[in-house]
Amino acid sequence: MKRFSFWHVVIFLAPAFLIYTVFSAYPLLDTLRQGFYTTSDTGQQSWAGIANYTKLLTDPQWSESFWNAMWNNVKFFLIHMCIQNPIGLLLAALLSLKGVKGAKAYQTVLFLPTLLSVVIIGFIWQLILSPLWGVSESLMTHVGLGEHFAPWLGQEETALITLALISVWQFVGIPMMLIYASLIAIPEEIIEAAVVEGASPWRIFWTIRLPLILPTLGLVTILTFVGNFNAFDLIYSVKGAIAGPNFSTDILGTFFYRTFFGYQSQVGSATMGAAVATTMFLVILAGVGVYSFFIQRKLQRHSF
Amino acid sequence: MTKNIGKLSATAFTQLILALFTLVSVFPIVLIIINAFKSRDGIFDNPLAFPTPETFSLVGFTKVLDKSPFLHFFGNSLTVTLVSLVLILLFAAMAAWALSEYKFKGSRWLAIYLAFGIMVPIRLGTVSILELAVKLELVNTLTILILVYVAQGLPLAIMILSEFMQQIPKELKEAARCDGVGEFKIFFQIILPLIRPAVATVAVFTMVPIWNDLWFPLILAPGEETQTVTLGVQQFIGQYVTDWNAVLASLSLAVLPVLVMYVFASRQLIRGITAGAVK
After folding, report:
1. CB distance B237–A123 less than 8 Å?
2. Assembly ipTM
3. Residues A32-78 pLDDT 10s
């Protein structure tokens, strides 16, 4: 019983297929291609094999900035994993408890920062942490920590951590909501059975709820990974493309931007930029690959 | 007795933690907004105080609106976001319908191809997107932003809408077909109205990143005519860094529309996320 014709399929699929192909899939493939080319001074592109990648990984100047950006990006990601996601889990666990007063209101406010632009959030925190305004310093003085205040965003040792924490502050609502959703999807009977058996709430959380939401924790991890290795806006708006002080906040996104558009004395290069973008693509692909082959396969979703 | 006390203290602990985090997440935003309504002296003398009749001042807002076409930026953001959203919803619904309803050769591969964009950020193709925009003479137009955002939003929207379409009872479609209703009519008059609940979910996942994006406006449409709010504020603050009134006011102007929208839509939005996430 064939009710549809070839043309139905074509017409329904064409708009999405064309726009996606032209403005997403093709540019991505073309970027991979350009990574193997080099641009001459006259703007002519010619085949260069893996020269761009050798330069990126072995040329002293290039490799130093590349590995600096990569390492900073790893730190950026680890801070999110160690702080953002555990806090998200804690908040979700508390919100999903029975009879918490005002749970909806808490949820609404905690999720609010994720809707605001990273640029705006960056500026807001820049003002709050500014020694000129002194808001943080006077707040810390109130609780007796005044002497520990420092211009964290301006110091080489603390700038990256501070930016990561700003990002954690903004996005903690996302793991919270995803984990909350999977916690409330656990059927009551399972929990009740455990309660009848005399299990403590603590034990129920660790041995029943947590294992059941592992797939969601996997999803949160991969979302954090892709988001972090693709980040740019926050660093750019607070620190500019130079990602100072002394490149201590440089991550792959800002490194890519500088390579592509150039800065100060360095001339921008589309082909070198494409090579950096390809490297980022491989990093993200590796993450997604690990996620889908190991985590998702082991952690079958529990369907009730 | 001890059990009750334990329960009571557990409740208190829960409330304390939640209240603390809620305070931390709302304090910076409130701080910026209250200080935007103060004079310069008010901002520096006592940042934590609400505006009083002595410190109240709108000088920051008048400066921002004088010196930058803020309302124009706002219009640009609104145009880009809404047009992209409508196109994403329409095209994604059509594609999701074709993929979930019609089984044809290669439909599985096509679904995988379209799903690829969920995990791989479109930003990585920027080098070629810019070249494409130059070739098509679309640099500094809102059109190129819309096209890129539609391409960016489609994969996830197709996935979410496909899940919804699969839940539509078969009988409904079969009955319409038996009555001789055409496929297009079935889609536009029966299916589209049925997937309205999914719109909230798709809207959250697509609108927010588009409205807030800095990357593509910065690269594809940095001209004054086509700046979006996010880029406009970023450039404005870069220029007036030392003018605290203007900076605070421009930040508030960027935050307030989102706040207002959130007040009206937060319940639906949160329901959309929780429903979408369980799937």
Report:
1. yes
2. 0.89
3. 999 999 888 777 888 888 889 999 999 998 999 999 999 999 999 99
> What's the structural domain count of chain A?
1
Whether A26 and chain B come into contact, CB under 8 Å, resolves to: yes
- Residue B210 structure tokens: 């588009």
Rounded to the nearest 10 degrees, how much is the dihedral formed by the CA atoms of A70, A225, A152, B64? Answer: 110
Q: Where in chain B is the domain with CATH 1.10.3720.10?
A: 65-278
Residue A195 counted as domain residue: yes
Which tens digit of pLDDT belongs to each residue from A187-205?
888 888 888 888 888 888 8
- Is A76 a domain residue? yes
- What are the C-alpha distances in Å from B246 to residues B62, B237, B254? 8, 8, 12
Contact call for residues A162 and A235 (beta carbons, < 8 A): no
- Express each pLDDT in B2-35 by its tens digit: 667 777 788 888 999 999 999 999 999 999 999 9
* B25, B148, B177 ranked by CB distance to A112: nearest: B25
Mean pLDDT of chain B: 88
User: For residue A168, which amino acid is it?
Assistant: V
Q: d(Cα B248, Cα B237) in Å, to the nearest integer?
A: 9
A50 close to B (CB below 8 A): no
Q: Which residues contact B202 (CB under 8 A, 6 or more apart)?
A: B88, B89, B92, B156, B157, B160, B161
Tens of pLDDT, residue by residue over A115-133, are 999 999 999 999 899 888 8
Q: Would the CB atoms of B215 and A280 count as touching at under 8 Å?
A: no
Here the CATH number for the domain that contains residue A140 is 1.10.3720.10
* CATH of span B65-278: 1.10.3720.10
Spatial neighbors of B242 by CB under 8 A, at least 6 apart, are none
Q: For residue A57, how many C-alpha atoms fall within 13 Å in the half-sphere facing its CB?
A: 7
